[in-house]
């Protein structure tokens, strides 16, 4: 990354663990479209494919890839390739899915990525099983009006294209996490070529709108931020009005990139959506996490609605403590609750005094067991009383002796010399 931006530590760790895939040009018959993507998580799980906006790359979803893959989900994050119209996008994306051998998908799109996800769901309804949309729109006429120079965008120099993209990201004072997300995306924009920016701006300004979808509203989730972002509120409201049966998840603040600024909330809503549409996580296939020993077949998740939303947070467990923490392979949360007697089993004061036995050998057990228990207790108590009286008498005699010695010393100071 260029400039003075320093990438966060979790991103550096992500890059060291998750490989970046590239599909060569010769895989495709439709122009020269190279795909750059991440694919992480159990391959047997239907994937959640993340599509970024105009300023995004496949890297901007690294927090979702790391968090969801550790829960047993498969996440694919893609770069938007060099396509120049909506029809070309649908064909190129379908070819990409064929190459990676994925047929039924769940799409998560933000901004322009949400619009492209809707386009693919409209023209290839059999391949899209569910949609998650965030800060997106239904038609491009608003952006086409803001770009009167769209016919010459393919000839525009790179620095002007970057300047136009960055002006769309609202500047000014932000919350620290939102400011960090903006810095990260700005650094990603610096990695984009002129063809990347020109093709994405062309898709944004190309006259198009979303027609009827065969996908049920119940298989859609809309995640919008309530603070200011580059997508006008009117356009976001049109999406909600178009799909009234979709699940809504409003986030109080998050800016243009809530997947970076509010990753915990976004990841929670994504997991709830995947469970609701029947995606079963395979936590037992995650390296470093032992297989579950419960009766549900050892899977980390299940289809349908979760019984308790608290089990979807990264650090929470069930209220009864019966479910292990899916984020780690060891720890007290994954162990059954301890019996209080076992915790104090090595304390002599808490040993049983009756006929109960323990695994360890107690040398006092022969003395304090059997029918002579009461007699032994009386004997021990009597001995203790005698010892106490003996020490009291000795202490009194010592006190008197010291007093006599002190008086004698007053009369004859040389006694202590």
UniProtKB/TrEMBL annotation:
Keywords: Cytoplasm. Residues 285-363 are annotated as: Disordered. InterPro entries: AB_hydrolase_1, AB_hydrolase_fold, Maspardin. It is found in: Cytoplasm. GO terms for cellular component: cytoplasm. Signal peptide: none annotated. GO terms for molecular function: hydrolase activity. Residues 46-141 form the AB hydrolase-1 domain. This is Maspardin. The lineage of its organism: Eukaryota, Viridiplantae, Streptophyta, Embryophyta, Tracheophyta.
